[in-house]
Amino acid sequence: MTVEQALQFDDSLWRRFTALHEAGHAIVALATGKASVSECVIAPTKTTSGDEASAYTELRWDSLDAHLTLLYGGAAAQQRWLHEQQLWSPLRDSAVEALASHDYAAAAATGAAPEQLRQAQTTALALRDRHWAAILAAGALLERNGRVSGETLSALLHQPPATASPATAQTPLSPPVAAFSHFMDRARQIAAESQRRASHTPDTTAQLPHAQSESLGSQQPGHRHIR
After folding, report:
1. Which helix (H) or strand (E) holds 46?
2. Which of 75, 135, 187, 211 falls 20 to 30 Å from 127 in CA-CA distance?
3. At what angle do helices 11-31 and 114-130 cross, to 10 degrees?
4. Which long-range contacts (CB under 8 A, 24 or more apart) does 191-200 make?
5. Among the listed residues 55, 44, 52, the one whose alpha carbon sits nearest the alpha carbon of residue 16
6. Dihedral sign, CA of 108, 114, 119, 121?
7. How many CB atoms are closer than 10 A to CB 61?
8. Percent helix, strand, coil in the chain (nearest 5)?
């Protein structure tokens, strides 16, 4: 059975699911404060091994911890979304894990200790939940346009909370934020609605890959995450 067969999504839902994966990587990466994102793109591409892929995110990181954390952001976003939309099933959860297998392999290949991997996943889940509205908004933009710039992603991440004080609410928004603030408003509505519909709190704890005994050497500062 293929991943697509396990998910049983039509083309439009598959595109949304793919967009959420990339948005999860990008927003979690930016939220670490130790990574930058050039863009997220939905377009056919190939992995370094020659396999077909449907999307990628261009990013850079400044520390191993940031690299490990962002690698868990894509699957974490998809898992929460499945729970909130009441689409979760063991089979679909297995599909998410399969889709993220290259992320887990990349994390293990750094030679990080098991405790570092566990901490990275915990941090990714916390950042995902803290910035969930931004992930939804970024995913919606990527789904619609097929490409989202790093500037826009950063603006979405730093969008003021909906519950800002009256004084803060009077502060003019920067152009990138103002241009996409309606996506944030809608994302907050979707997040609130899906939270109410969710039957239980998502349990996205997954078995982590075993750390490799050998390291790839010096940490590379750039990365194209391929979906």
Report:
1. strand 35-46
2. 211
3. 110
4. 191/84, 191/132, 191/133, 191/136, 194/81, 194/84, 194/85, 195/84, 197/84, 197/85, 197/86, 198/83, 198/84, 198/86, 199/86, 200/83
5. 55
6. positive
7. 23
8. 60, 15, 30
The span from the CA of 174 to the CA of 45, in Å, is 34
Give 148's contacts (C-beta < 8 A, 6+ positions apart): 23, 26, 39, 40, 138, 141, 142
Q: Which amino acid is present at 57?
A: T
Which helix or strand (DSSP H or E) is residue 118 part of?
A: helix 114-130
Structure confidence by residue, pLDDT tens digits, 136-176: 999 999 999 999 999 999 999 998 755 434 443 343 444 44
d(C-alpha 9, C-alpha 136), whole Å: 18
Q: Give, rounded to a whole angstrom, the gap between the first and last alpha carbons of the chain.
A: 19
Distance, CA of 76 to CA of 22 (rounded, Å): 11
For residue range 20-73, list pLDDT tens digits in order.
999 999 999 999 999 999 999 999 877 656 667 789 999 999 999 999 999 999
Q: State if pTM tops 0.85.
A: no
Are the beta carbons of 79 and 28 closer than 8 angstroms? no
d(CA 25, CA 92): 19
> Which residue is associated with the tokens 């697509």?
4
- 74 neighbors 100 (Cβ within 8 angstroms): yes
